[in-house]
Task: inverse folding
């Protein structure tokens, strides 16, 4: 192997190791700072409030402004394949249960405005949509690790069930979604 190529490979390897070490340090430094534990395990916790810019119309929307309604908080992104798969299911859920006081709240995570709006149009998302531009609500407040991730909030603003990490319309996640939605709607 030529010396230049070997040097380039070594520099690349050092870069990858440095990036992984940085990710590890960040993970350890931020662990436990979330307001929501990784597993709720039957605990009743207030859902962390947030106020974010809307994607679907001008203005902002806060979670507390939806108090008295059941809220399915779904973190998604236009570049997320499982998000594309679950978007029609979430729209159908919104249409089916909105007369019972359900709001599906889509929180776009770490995305480009144009891409997020295009995604919403393409998948016919008519429920409220807001933007978590830097991912601080998902990561810092809710302890999320990626998208899609879904939380259930009852009429009193308390988290119900447990988080779902993955597409809510798929297999075991669908069963959990239905169970947590029923719990929240009973509140």
Result:
């Amino acid at each position: 192997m030529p010396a230049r190529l070997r040097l380039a490979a070594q520099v690349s390897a050092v870069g990858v190791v440095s990036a992984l070490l940085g990710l590890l340090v960040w993970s350890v430094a931020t662990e436990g700072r979330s307001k929501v534990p990784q597993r709720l395990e039957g605990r009743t916790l207030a859902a962390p409030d947030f106020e974010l810019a809307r994607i679907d119309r001008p203005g902002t929307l806060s979670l507390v402004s939806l108090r008295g309604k059941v809220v399915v908080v779904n973190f998604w992104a236009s570049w997320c394949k499982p998000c594309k798969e679950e978007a029609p299911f979430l729209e159908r859920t919104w249409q089916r249960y909105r007369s019972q006081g359900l709001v599906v709240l889509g929180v776009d995570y770490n995305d480009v405005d144009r891409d997020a709006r295009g995604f919403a149009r393409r998948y016919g998302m008519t429920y409220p949509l807001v933007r978590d531009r830097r991912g601080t609500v998902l990561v810092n407040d809710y302890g999320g690790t990626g998208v899609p991730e879904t939380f259930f909030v009852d009429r009193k603003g308390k988290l119900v069930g447990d988080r779902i990490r993955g597409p809510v319309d798929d297999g075991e996640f669908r069963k959990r979604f239905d169970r947590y939605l029923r719990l929240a709607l009973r509140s």
